[in-house]
Amino acid sequence: MKQAQTYQPARHWLDSWHVDPSANRTYDFIDGLRGVAILMVLACHLIYAHEPNSPAGRFLLHFSNSMGKGVNLFFTLSGFLIAWPFWKRKVNQSTQLVPPGYGWRRFWKIYPPLALSILVLTPLFIWSEGDAPVFIRTAIEWLTGVAFLMPVSGKLNPVMWSLVVEIHFYLVLPMLFLLTRRLSAKTCLWAISAFLFVVPVSIQAITGKYPVLYPEIKDPFCTGLSCFCFGVAVAGIDALKLWNKGWSKIAVAGWPVMVIGLAGWTWAGLEPAQNAAIILHLSHWIFLLGTGCLLCYAANPDHVHARWLCAPWLRWCGVISYEWYLFHQPIIYWARTLFGPAQGNVAKYLLIIGLPVLVSVTFSALVYRLFSLPILKFGRQTRVAAK
Q1: What is the count of structural domains for the chain?
Q2: Distance (Å, rounded) from C-alpha 189 to C-alpha 235?
Q3: 70: nearest Cα among 209, 232, 261
Q4: Residue 222 contacts residue 172 (beta carbons within 8 Å)
Q5: CA 222 → CA 143, 158, 169, 209, distances in Å?
Q6: Which of 283, 311, 369, 231 is nearest to 63 (CA)?
Q7: Strand, helix or coil at 371?
Q8: Helices H / strands E in the chain, number of each
Q9: CA pair distance 294, 37, nearest whole angstrom
Q10: What is the C-alpha to C-alpha distance for residues 140 and 147, in angstroms, rounded to an integer?
Q11: CA distances (Å), origin 6, targets 9, 10, 12
Q12: What is the dihedral of CA 74, 203, 86, 240, to 10 degrees?
């Protein structure tokens, strides 16, 4: 008699790039949104030109520069993914609100690639720019964690400013859930979301201080936490099941809302009007609102747009996005230094922007697959063994 065979679902080639391909399978579209975010940041740093004479040309050039707001999309996605297990435990009335292994998971994800990037890039920066004492001191401050607590020079890979904001969020979020543990889940949803919105914005308004990346990297008084509020709120709505599939229409609206925010940000930067600062702030929040809307695809992951975001190539960009983020900007900078100005030569311009993309994506993919992924698996296995 033939033995009954257990059904095994077909594996996808992307499964081997995940620590646990079965976890959060419903939210594969978030990998695609990560891919969108890293491509936006890459476009911001890649596209360059002399200031065009035409208003339309100037607007398009500065609009490409506004693509750096893709970092805010990363923050919103991080708010959703990091807060979701907290909300799940809150809804289930778990006595332990902080997920087991929370700190170690964040450590294995963030620190090893960061440390590797510092060890690889610091000698190259010293070789290309000199000023060894500054770069060595800055590298030590990042490796020891001092940079997450005190201002640090922005000369060594300025993109690392976002990690300071991220780490502050990782520290504050568990405290918010612990402080509100006696509140109901619904009350907690509004309390935590309001805190992340109101407190950082109030501090900015009172002190005039914001997260900065140059000449020093610093996030005074955790003023960057407001960028996570929409992601945290949507995660709570999802865990509490306060929505239905119709909410996916909000996600569709998120794309034009984001574009309006980018256009407003661009226009305010071009027009040195008296109210430009107000328009910048308004555009910033319009863009953030759009990023929060995109998360509403979680209400209906089978929506056609969500399936588009699950395109393997886009999800793959999202999977390696952290490593790509860490390494791309110095490679772009050194390519421009090596080749010099394009001076209207289209072939040379394409080489200057194309070669860094090829080098950075290849190197980042290798770092993720051969370095980061094994470490993530080790961290996961260690946690399972500890259980």
Answers
A1: 1
A2: 9
A3: 261
A4: yes
A5: 21, 18, 8, 10
A6: 283
A7: helix
A8: 15, 2
A9: 12
A10: 9
A11: 10, 13, 18
A12: -90
Residue where the block lists tokens 């107000």: 278
Backbone angles phi, psi at 354, to 5 degrees: -80, -40
Cα–Cα nearest to 248, from 202, 159, 309: 309
Give the span between the Cα atoms of 250 and 227, in whole angstroms: 19
The answer to whether position 10 is within a domain reads no
What is the CA 23 to chain-centroid distance, rounded?
A: 20
List the domain range (segments joined by +) for residue 208. 24-380
Give dist(CA 381, CA 6) in Å, integer.
25
In whole angstroms, give the CA distance from residue 313 to residue 219: 34
**Cβ atoms of residues 35 and 315 within 8 Å:** yes
pTM given for the model: 0.94
* Cα three-residue angle 245-249-255, rounded to 5 degrees: 135
Tokens 């081997």: give the residue.
16
Condensed to tens digits (0 to 9), the pLDDT of residues 315-334 reads: 999 999 999 999 999 999 99
In a 3-state reduction of DSSP, which class is residue 217? strand
Instruction: Specify if 18 maps to a domain.
Output: no
End-to-end CA distance of the chain: 40
> Which residue, chain included where needed, has tokens 């979020």?
173
* Residues 107-140: tens digit of each pLDDT: 999 999 999 999 999 999 999 998 899 999 999 9
The dihedrals phi and psi of 153, each to the nearest 5 degrees, come to -60, 140
**Inside any domain, residue 243:** yes
Q: Has residue 12 been placed in a domain?
A: no
